[in-house]
Amino acid sequence: MSQSQTNQPVFSIEKVYVKDLSLEIPNAPQSFLERDAPTVDVQLHHNSTGVEEGVYQTVLTVTVTAKVNDKTLFLVEAAQAGIFVIRNVPAQELEAVLGIACPNILFPYAREVVSDTVTRAGFPPVVLSPVNFEAIYQAQRDPQPAAEPAVQIITPTSSH
Question: What is the pTM (predicted TM-score) of this model?
Answer without folding.
Answer: 0.83
